[in-house]
Design a protein that fits this description.
56% of the residues lie in helices and 7% in strands. With 358 residues, the chain is an alpha+beta fold. Helix 3 crosses helix 4. About 3% of the residues have low confidence.
């Protein structure tokens, strides 16, 4: 898939904002007014608006978009920062509330991953995902929130969701989005061996767990509804921030065992080729690998979790319609999934058929 000048400008500014550096190809600028609006809309679609806006700060004044668009872009980035401040407050409150009640929540993705960024407030947030080490503890946590007036909704994948202070919260007892049943024992031992890291206000997965978790989560959405640049930015920043804090050989072995190894080579080439991650910060390198044009197409086609694809699902759809949409999205990408993660693709299709993935 060939990249348009607007796509190239988007990636250039994204790299600048992601690593807080001068854009690496100023020859792409200035753009036409229409071109700038295309870049802005793509940044919104991919939920990297504030990061790309930071990249604009490193452009010379004469190369910037017009004042109308700049005002809109900066205002959007400011709203993202305000939302993040609220999310940080909610996470701290929930962690304190649950800890005081004898619970041990772990923050998955989201606000935990944001700490890997130079400026955590730039990462566009979604909901808050909390992991609990057992179903018994998760039920206790759900009961606590129910007593506090929250309506708890059970999801097809077994998670519980509710709204707390206008923020969507999800409870999980599954840390990894891996559906091969033969891995259950290995993953339990892997979690027990590597554990969690205590932060100032909440616990997060240890570096090894975090990288496998983020990788598997990205693959799950890539195979299903689709995935956007924000999730790839999360992986790039995680590899960068956690470099030197884990054993690369153990991570490579975990990728091999879980069936993520071949897919991870594709992931790594994308991170280095398009997002500017340094090769030296990868756990392992395949120098002959290249980014599949199919992967680039999937990312640019769907945006954040496929919300902007031509066949996007709607919240108003009935349950069976959403399940059908999810399965058809998976079927549409079966060529890529079957090539780079065949075992996980098979077991994911089984779970989709029986309705155990939302």
């Amino acid at each position: 898939m060939g990249l348009s000048s607007e796509h190239k400008a988007l990636f250039c500014l994204l790299r600048a904002g992601l690593w807080e550096t001068v854009p690496d190809d100023l020859s792409l600028f200035p753009l036409t007014d229409a071109g700038w609006w295309d870049v802005y809309r793509m940044s919104v679609r991919q939920t990297v608006t504030a990061i790309v806006c930071r990249g604009l700060h490193y452009l010379p004044d004469e190369l910037l978009p017009d004042e109308e668009l700049m005002i809109r872009w900066v205002a959007k980035a400011d709203r993202i920062e305000q939302r993040n401040r609220k999310m940080d407050t909610v996470v701290e409150q929930l962690a304190r509330l649950m800890t005081d009640n004898g619970l041990h929540p772990v923050v998955m993705k989201g606000q935990g991953v944001a700490t890997f960024y130079e400026d955590p407030l730039l990462r566009e947030c979604g909901d808050i995902d909390l992991y609990f080490p057992s179903e018994k503890e998760e039920r206790k946590a759900a009961g606590l929130m129910r007593k506090l007036g929250c309506d708890i909704d059970r999801q097809p994948d077994g998670s519980n969701s509710y709204c707390w202070q206008d923020v969507e919260i999800e409870h999980h007892t599954r840390l990894f989005d891996l559906y091969n049943p033969l891995l259950k024992g290995y993953l339990s031992a892997f979690i027990k061996e590597n554990g969690f890291t205590a932060g100032q206000t909440f616990a997060v997965p240890s570096p090894l767990l975090n990288l496998v978790m983020l990788n598997a989560h990205l693959l799950k959405h890539l195979m299903g509804h689709g995935v956007g640049l924000r999730q790839f930015c999360d992986m790039a920043r995680a590899y960068h921030a956690l470099y030197g804090n884990y054993d690369p050989e153990k991570l490579e072995a975990a990728y091999q065992k879980t069936g993520l190894y071949k897919w991870s080579i594709q992931l790594h080439t994308f991170l280095t080729e398009h997002l500017g991650l340094r090769y030296g910060e990868l756990p392992y390198i395949d120098t002959e690998a290249f980014t599949s044009p199919r992967l680039l197409h999937i990312v640019l086609e769907g945006g954040n979790f496929g919300q902007y694809g031509e066949t996007k699902g709607k919240a108003s759809q009935a349950g069976w319609e959403r399940k059908l949409h999810t399965f058809l999205s998976f079927w549409k990408r079966r060529d890529f999934s079957g090539t780079y993660a065949p075992e996980e693709a098979f077991w994911t299709s089984v779970k989709l058929i029986i309705g155990k993935i939302k």
